[in-house]
Amino acid sequence: MNWYVKNFKNLTIEELYELIKARVDVFVVEQTCPYPELDNYDQVSVHMFLKIDGNIAAYVRLLPEHSKFEEASIGRVLVVEKYRNQGFARRLLEKAINYINHQWKSDKIKIQAQNRLKDFYASLGFKQISEIYIEDGIPHIDMIWKRG
C-alpha cells in the first residue's frame, strides 16, 4: 500500500491513464453520469492517490487557489468499489486537507459535495455554504473548510 502525491507533469503516462480510468469508471459509468471528465484542471492540480497491489484504490484532485475557485479546492474524490468501507476515503481527505493547509498555506478549502455525503464531509470540518443544486444530474452542495 503506497500513497502518492504528484503534479500533472510528474505523473507517468501509465499513472495518468489509471487515474482517468478510475475516474471514468466511478463518475461516468458507476454513477451513470455523462459529463466532461477531462476539464483542463488536471494540468494545474496536484494528484493524490493510493495504490494497493499496483492498483488505484483511492484518488483525489487538489486545485490551488484561483484556479477553479477563489479558494483551494478538493475534487474528484473517489475510492474504487472493491476498496470501499475500509477507511480510505477519510484517510485520503485528511491527507488532502493537510497538504493544502501545510504545503499551500491555504486557510480555506472549497468542495462541491454530493449531498448524500454531506455528513461525511461535515465530520472532517466542512460546513455547508449553499442550498442543494443539481450538477450533472446529482444533488450537490458547496462546502467550505476553514483552518482554526
UniProtKB/TrEMBL annotation:
Record's keyword annotation contains Transferase: yes
Record bears the keyword Aminoacyl-tRNA synthetase: no
Keywords: Transferase
Organism superkingdom: Bacteria
Gene Ontology MF term list: acyltransferase activity, transferring groups other than amino-acyl groups
Any Pfam family the entry gives: Acetyltransf_10
Domain N-acetyltransferase residues, every copy: 6-148
Protein's UniProt name: GNAT family N-acetyltransferase
